[in-house]
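Field reference: "sequence" (input) and "structure" (output). Example, Colicin V production protein:
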Amino acid sequence: MSLIDVIIIIVLLLFLIAGFRLGFIRSIGALIGFIVGIFVATFYYDVLANLFLPLFLGNLKIAQIISFIFILVLASSLVGFIFHIIDRVFKIVAIVPFLKTFNNFIGGIFSLIEGVLILGIILYLFGSYFQQFLINSTIAPILIKMAGILIPFLPEGLKCINCFLT
């Protein structure tokens, strides 16, 4: 097992623990918020980029990337907030035996899925910078493949972020 695999496992364990602590409703809210955020950002990043264009001295690619990330975070946060409110209502019902444990267990699973998708996208976008570490990794290619379901929804500017950073 390579060092990068150990780091990935630690990060995924942190997602699992966080999800276990948050519970099912908030964890599913975070996962849905992340996916909804990507979809919303896919449709509206270009509009916002044109508004941001003067701030980035006419650099459309940078404006698109910043706009996409901004919309992703905003939409994800809004969905997360809605699920936070739903979770507050659920806590009243959670007096039923084993319901809290079930809520925490499923929350851990959904946060783990979110972690896999986020790490997979990060590895996809920045993998060329860490190729020497990723060559020996058995986990990184799996994460990249699993995140592949969301990659088509990323804007072209974000997909070729390596073009801007080199």
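The chain has one domain: 3-160.
The chain is about 80% helix and 0% strand.
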